[in-house]
Design goal:
It is a single chain. This protein is mainly beta. It has five domains: about 20-95, Immunoglobulin-like (Sandwich), CATH 2.60.40; about 100-170, Immunoglobulins (Immunoglobulin-like, Sandwich), CATH 2.60.40.10; about 180-250, Immunoglobulin-like (Sandwich), CATH 2.60.40.10; about 255-350, Immunoglobulins (Immunoglobulin-like, Sandwich), CATH 2.60.40.10; about 360-584, no CATH class. About 5% of the residues lie in helices and about 40% in strands. It is rod-shaped.
């Protein structure tokens, strides 16, 4: 017979069997020499849940994950303990990469204001052994990688990492000094605005500007009334400020102008001018002279004025289209945007028109044509009188030797041939007759040096130059006085003649603009074998009162020259020249 027996245990459970603890471990080495990116990871294969992981090197670290990071190169012991106090242990070595070359880069913050000290150098180092020290120029090494409060200049940065040393050069720059200039346009009328324009340089753009105590603006142009102003300039880095003080805007006042004396008055023209001493604070926009037959002429009262430029300073005015023998009143003017000012008023009277005058008769009854030129009445023929105007005879000296040794007045005819040359060219007189002041008819006189110069100046003013360097000018001053009678004259008619009186043939020919009718009377020159010479070639007449040293002089027109020449010498007294008288 069989029996079944069952046992029941009260108060405890059967003992469970503990599992053996087994693990695996994985590692990663440090990727950069001296770095700390190594890892160790422990994985339980079999064991009893509830694990504690420990990593021991110089210290021990414990966690419940089995993952250890941020490890430097070295030897480690890793161990695991489970809930049944089973343990597992393994030694692990973390390696590292070989050290790389030290690399250094510099970031520069330049000085923002001229002469400032906010420059900065920031150093970035890689490679080496990942621990770095830094120094600037000859200073000490520091741990920090920045150098601040630097002025503009050249610097040397040194980085050291273990045995690695790298040196880099750096230049901290700065902007040029902030500077500014100004220009003004003054108000054009009282109470109106003028303008102030600022031109800034240096610093860092864009600039900001303010007028007086106003706000900063980006515009460099300010409108402002008259007075003294201050402009302040800063740049994009708030450098400066650069201050321009004492900028003055002035309300305009009338210009200041003076009038020049009226000169070279002719029958239809005159020359004057003026000097604008001040523009009145604004530009002078017009200047010239204004004239009228009424006193105190103005621009508003008549249309007779010149326009002679702009601005201050001296100017010359040519007054034209005048009426002969008329009294005019003239003054200079200057205008700005505000008003017109006038200088002193001068009066002048135009001369009579150039042209034929009344004939004049000498003491012997010889009659001469006359001509008005520049309000002066000239003989239009050479003098041929043989007596002084007091009735005394003038000696006729034919001998060359006697003529040469004279110290008193005398006359002669060219080649001592009155019949051929006397009526055509007049007589030749020595200088001693001129100084008697008795040659000309009463009320007439030998032209003075000044009167000859006035004649030449008048001719030049009419547009006929007296150019000594250009003696073949067909419009030269000499040609205006020269008779047109000439061999082969291109003018034809009575001008083209071989008969005396006339000029020899030449490429230079006269057109007798004023009716002066100068004819080549020749001269008597006592110092050569050919004492009479230059008939048909040279027109020469006496002038007087040149200076205390040279009482007499000569006015000449030569055949092959288009100018008028004047010369003076005391030795001329023994020469024989013709005479043209001028009315007192």
């Amino acid at each position: 017979m069989a029996f079944a027996v069952a046992f029941t245990f009260w108060g405890c459970d059967p003992e469970e069997t503990a599992v053996e603890l087994t693990c695996t471990v994985a590692k990663t080495d440090v990727t950069v020499y001296g770095g700390n990116d190594g890892t160790i990871t422990v994985t339980v294969v079999t064991g009893n849940e509830g694990y504690e992981y420990s990593l021991t090197s110089t210290t021990t670290t414990t966690n419940t994950t089995g993952s250890f990071t941020g490890l430097v190169a070295g030897d480690y012991s890793v161990s695991v303990k489970d809930s049944k106090n089973k343990t597992w242990q393994k030694d692990v070595t973390i390696g590292q990469a070989a050290p790389s070359e030290l690399s250094v880069t510099l970031a520069l913050d330049h000085v923002t204001c001229h002469s400032g000290n906010n420059g900065k150098i920031t150093v970035t180092a890689t490679g080496g052994i990942l621990t770095y020290v830094y120094k600037l120029d000859d200073g000490n090494y520091q741990d920090g990688n920045t150098f601040e409060s630097l002025t503009a200049g050249d610097y040397t940065v040194t980085v050291k990492s273990g045995d690695f040393i790298v040196t880099k050069n750096a230049t901290i720059t700065q902007p040029t000094a902030l500077n500014a200039t100004h220009s003004v346009v003054h108000p054009t009328s009282p109470g109106a605005n003028g303008t102030i324009t600022i031109s800034a340089t240096g610093g860092t753009t864009p600039y900001q500007y303010k007028l007086n105590d106003g706000e900063y603006l980006s515009s460099n142009i300010f409108n402002a009334t008259s007075g003294t102003h201050t402009v302040t300039v800063t740049d994009a880095n708030s450098c400066g400020p650069f201050v321009i003080s004492g900028i003055t805007l002035t309300d305009p006042v009338p210009p200041t102008v003076t009038t020049d004396t009226v000169t070279f008055v002719t029958s239809i023209s005159a020359i004057s001018g003026g000097n604008v001493l001040s523009g009145g604070g604004v530009p002078v926009t017009a200047r010239g002279v204004v004239w009228s037959t009424s006193e105190e002429p103005t621009l508003e009262s008549n249309s007779d004025y010149t326009s002679d430029g702009e601005g201050t300073g001296e100017f010359e005015s040519l007054v034209t289209e005048l009426t002969p023998q008329t009294t005019y009143y003239l003054r200079a003017y200057a205008s700005n945007s505000f008003s017109t000012s006038y200088g002193e008023t001068f009066s002048f009277t135009t001369s009579r028109e150039d042209g034929q005058g009344d004939a004049v008769t000498d003491i012997e009854g010889n009659t001469y044509n006359t001509v008005w030129i520049n309000n002066k009445l000239w003989m239009a023929e050479n003098l041929k009188v043989t007596k002084y105007n007091d009735g005394n005879s003038i000696p006729n000296i034919t001998s060359d030797g006697e003529w040469l040794n004279l110290s008193t007045g005398a006359y002669c005819w060219y080649e001592n041939d009155e019949a051929t040359y006397g009526n055509a060219y007049g007589a030749l007189y020595n200088g001693y007759t001129v100084v008697t002041e008795k040659l000309c008819p009463t009320g007439w006189h030998i032209p003075t040096y000044q009167e000859v110069e006035e004649l030449i100046g008048y001719i030049i003013a009419q547009g006929y130059p007296n150019e000594h360097q250009n003696q073949n000018n067909p419009n030269g001053a000499g040609n205006t006085l020269r008779s047109c009678r000439q061999i082969d004259s291109p003018l034809g008619g009575e001008c083209n003649t071989n008969e005396h009186p006339r000029w020899d043939s030449s490429s230079v020919y006269g057109f007798d603009k004023f009716g002066f009718s100068a004819l080549p009377n020749g001269s008597r020159y006592p110092y050569t074998y050919d004492t009479f010479n230059l008939i048909g070639i040279v027109f020469r007449i006496w002038t007087s009162r040149y200076s205390p040293e040279y009482t007499n002089g000569v006015m000449s027109i030569d055949l092959n020259a288009s100018d008028i020449d004047t010369s003076y010498s005391e030795s001329y007294n023994n020469w024989g020249f013709s005479v043209r008288c001028i009315k007192d």
